[in-house]
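Consider this one:
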Amino acid sequence: MASRSSLPKVLISSSSAHPVHERFAHFARLVSNIAGKPIAFLIAVAIVAVWAVTGPLFGFSDTWQLVINTGTTIVTFLMVFVIQNTQNRDQMAIQIKLAELIVAMKGAHNNVALAEEMPDEDLERLHVHYQAMCEQTHKSLTARRSAQTPDKPKQGSGKARKKAEKTA
């Protein structure tokens, strides 16, 4: 972990986030983590199974159907906000990490660090540009690999390299 003195000053300053925002962010992360676990899925399946089994007891009435419809609608509605909050936070953290790497890389195009702020047309042009660069790099690597002689052992690490050295 980076020392406090090596972090940008913006991170060292006191947090000005409203306590309600902080509590909601904490709650959203907690709920998202729990909802993503297999046990949450199993609980949901159990609830649906109990609801289905009770169908004959309630004569498959409109009220019986309304219970599951209302419950799932409310849960879905609330989860949209919780998950969106978590995704926004995660996306921002990823963008910050990528921006830090781009800015730190010698020779990198620093303007790419803020690509998420660019107009769609600029993003599309950048995408096409980097896609072409990737294809060119792939072709170059493929040509370089095919130029290697098959009888020459590749330089590896660990056991494979030691075995190659012993047989040579």
Summary: Helices lie at 9-12, 19-35, 38-53, 62-104, 120-147, 159-167. The chain has two domains: 17-108, 110-144.
